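Researcher: Hi, I'm a grad student and pretty new to this. My advisor asked me to get structures for two proteins we've been looking at. I'm not sure of the right format, so I'll just paste the first sequence and hope you can take it from there.
Model: That works fine. Here's the first sequence with its structure tokens right after it:
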Amino acid sequence: MKTNLTIKNFRVFNENGVTIELNPITILTGCNSSGKSSIVKAVLLLNDYLTQVKKAFENNDEIELSRYKLDFYKIPFNLLGQFDNVVNDGSACHSITFEYTTYSYMISKDVKVQMKFASEGNDDLNNGYLHALIISSDDGIIYSTDKEKGNLCNLNTIKNACFEYLPIEYLVFNYCGLESKYEFTGGISEQDYEAQKEEMITYLRGCDTKRRADVFKHVRYSDKRSSIAVRCNINPEILENPIENGSLFKIPVIDQLNQIEKGKIKDYVNEHFLKNAAQNVIYGSNKIIDDFIASDCTSFGDYFKQWEISYLSELRPTKFSLFGESPALLDRHIISRINQDYYWINWYEQSGEAYVFSADFDENAKSQKPIIENTKQKDIDSFENRDISFDWLYETVMLWNRVAGNKGIGKYFTFIQNTFEPDEYRHSTMAMISTFAEELVLEVIFPDWCSHIEYASSTRAKVHRIYTLYDNDEFSVMLKRYFDAKRKYLSDGNKMQVQRKDYEIDSFMNRWIKEFEIGESVSIDSVHRLGAQITLHKSSDDKGRMLADEGFGITQFFSILLQIETAILSAEGEKVNNMWALNQLDGYGSDKFHFEKNTIAIEEPEIHLHPKFQSKLADMMVEAYKKYNIHFIVETHSEYLIRKLQVLVAGKDDTSELQVSKDDISILYVNLPKDVAEKGEPQVRRIGIGEDGRLDSPFGSGFYDEADNQAMELLRIKAMGK
């Protein structure tokens, strides 16, 4: 788990909140009751909430974010109490806020996701429910949904990234053809591929290297089955117009009007587009033209783009929850039409010429010659009292375009004529960028650590000779997960996965059992109708002795090994940089297996372990991270574990695979609330590790210096002759 997490109004953390940097190996230390456990529980609660939403999405359920909850009745949250017990006593808004950062491959930027939870009076169980969600980057808000304010999507903040992303994604799918979760295979014939290969490779080499790599990663890691262009049934060549002209809408009549002098445009529109129009249409059109003439814009196209930018900054598509009933994710609806609220238009076409009528046009008159509707004065008054908006401008321009005979121009937009409803225009670029926005929201709302965090408490295992699998205690759940992961790993459907991983079952556990001098190997066997039996073997021909005979400390340590082994077995992934047809690009063609990220949060792993073995815990965690992409959040008081991490950063260990970067480790010292109030200490202080292994700031008093203090006290007593 690599992210910055901000926690506000959660237990000891007040409305000012704390921001913590979570790295692949995160160490939480400090005095008892300082808030270390609160940080771990906050991470687990947020993960549990996002996992609920993710499962619903994977089941194709309709997503309403307030359906899911911070469930304080689940283990291990059940010991926290209800929402009212968990929210900080000083909270004025009586809400809990979580913020996290995640890197988006779709826009190649860090994105911040902010979620605010509150209780609801109709829930007697007093859990927490989402009331607001904000997704933003350094360019501004991308998407927000609020129980009171409704929803907002700012397409301007992602427009350029979308234009860069779509052609690369299209080429990957068109030429590589994603056929499974792990590998790409040919999507076109070999003959067609060879004919177009050089052109494709040349284009991809011309793209920004980082941007290209990010798009490849998103395509591989997100389990996509088709490109956005394929889903929208369009070719990304349509992006040439918005890239060149800055507008998402390719409307021929605008190009036509750009050729007309600004002072003559009013006469031109009235003569060419409004001869047979209803009076309210004429009035509305002229009001727009007068506003354009009064503006600083030199062309009508610039005037349209100015309104378009404003509109895209506050986009509220009809499929969003507009009335504040429930925060919701962007759904899979493609935005195809702007809201038409200003005048209800019916189109009537006769002898190839289009005429415009108001909504109360008599349908029975269709057999008669076209008429000019004398709209009532109240309809014109309603326009006079309205401010111009993009909705109004868009509908008017599309009306002019229709009268000019431009029903649609193929790849750019499609005209859909309705008899009793306003006409629709499906703009391909709007379809593409709105689908891009939907996928982006899903990417950041389900970061790579979502649903991949496990927890090991300080009482994670009991000493039993036979472990029943029917109980729901922590260790029984671990065993069931291990057996399930092992079965899936060995199943016929995963034979190729086994070959790609090139991993021998239980090899990690056996290696570290040997390192901790417990034995040579371990066997975990299902005992029919009873449960599971864990046996440690001193040699290959040793019948072994039960784990229960080794004592409480070894049992606690083994439970951590079991979780790591299970994470290795269950991890999915793919061959890194292995895309068919792209092996000519620099750095592609490797067969190395990529393990998906898994995180284990462990409470006091050093319990009942000798200092020598507390130190070895650091070695074990670093190997699990570097070889199998397993991350750790460790709540600890162990000086030996931290000291060994310093040594590993400094590179003084002879085993190169155990060396780790200082940027992969985050040491967080959590101060007592009284020290925050009385001494002005930060609530959470990050202690950095230098390249030489030295810490850039000291721990709080009583950590490293406690042994020195006691030694000095002994010297003082001896000097006094006592």
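Researcher: Oh nice, that was easy. Here's the second one.
Model: And its structure:
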Amino acid sequence: MRTTRTNDGLNVHAVAGTYVVLLGFDLPQADCPGLLGFSILRRDHTENEETFLHGQKTFAETATPAPRGTQRSSEQHPIQSFQWEDYTAKPGHRYSYTVTALKGEPRDLQPHARTTVSVETESPEGGIHDVYFNRGVAGSQAYERHFGDLPPDKVPDRAAFTWLSRGLNEALEDFLRSCVPGRHALRFAAYEFSYARFLAVIKEVVDAGVDVKIVYDARSDYTREANSKAVRKAGLAGVSSQRTFPTSYISHNKFIVKLEDGEPIAVWTGSTNFSAGGIYGHSNVAHVVEDPDVAGKFLDYWLVLDQDPASSLLKDRVEEISPLPAGRPPQGTTVLFSPRRDESALDWYAELAMAARQGVFMTFAFGMNDVFKAVYRDSQAPFRLALMEQATRPMRRGPARTAEEERIQQLRNMPQNVFAVGNFIRTNELDAWAIEKLSGLNSHVKYVHNKYMLLDPLSDDPIVVSGSANFSDASVRRNDENMVIVRGNKRVADIYLGEFMRMYTHHAFRESLKWRDRRRRPSFLRTDDWWRDYYGDTPRSTRRRFFARSL
């Protein structure tokens, strides 16, 4: 949901996803001298509560000793930014946000302008598309506040796992347990398939009499033995088959087709592997499409995979089932499967991104392909963000990696581009931040495992591309993959954008700490013209205009 309101010259634009509400502010530059920041009062009309949103910084004049990680109310310690996020929102709640521009003195803040906007957050379940993002940030101040330095498996009652799942695992188990024996059937295609708790739920459903068939990856050394062993241990060998040929590629899908009375009705897909690390560790999304036509294409694809075909035969069938659209995708939902004969699909994704006019937002779990380097170099969109697991694909140290890092840095130096690379806080010597730890659930990918692209997400015609593929050559030519393209659905775009900004902001700040001088005094809120960089031809000015919709 999106809404905009202007009062006393203060414009506020709100975008409500499921667990995130994005707020963009704008104030005439002539009104900014003396501006000390913004307070944000949130009223939860569903639970009849109100609270000021919080930050970490204080004015030097009003600073008081506090434990590390203490949050500060924006009522006394205003937000010195023209864009803020509420990460504590709850799905299906009615909220109003009162944003007040504050002037005066740190000890005597005075309102200059005040605007209230009202929104209702989305439910993960809604219409054709159900979208679930896990929390994806075990290394976070919020985790430290909730669970201290305990790893997830040491927290009683699985409380840390529930917090990290943020509804994704619960929805996954419900998707399986909703099946009625004799009426429903399930068809799985899996890459990582060794999470005992998940396999136990499948066995429960099989024992109840639901028709279940599974194809899992046995092409990769990384998954072959672990998957096979887990399947045997769970008692699922009788309903499972292996994807084995050719061994140089991987069967990277993570989808489940649901059938009713023999007809496909829905598909569970996205980037989330059926593993503890996928569900609870690094960032992931699960995307359910309740559309018989879309589910039917996934079923056709699964039927081919179940035959464990040679690569050439599979590529022919894949391009028949999911032909590449000519130009922009049609309104609604389109699917693309891999492997394919050539890299045309990758080029098509890049052409879509190059055509964006307002904003490009992409995640990169394994480096940035050259076609997307061209997008971030040449796109006409003035606001281009990238969230990366690492600055490069996995590479050994040496001249090739150095050259790749330099190419990425050249893109980062462009004012239109803002990149964030996965990281976490490793010291308590900076300001009031607590030391963070990772979950220990992931080895290859620690932070960003999502694979999605958002194009002009706040326009009336947004495009969301999401699935299992890493926007790479291998993902379109070699591996078994799937992608869902959703055009024109503002609800889906709002959910994805909120989650993108949540993860982007989280990692951008943590990466910035690498360049902080630990001997420096804690940074405080400023009393000078801190706002000047938000006007003129600057990256922050572009960000202000984008989120406040002052285009």
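Researcher: Is there anything I should tell my advisor about the second?
Model: You could mention this: The longest helix spans residues 490-512.
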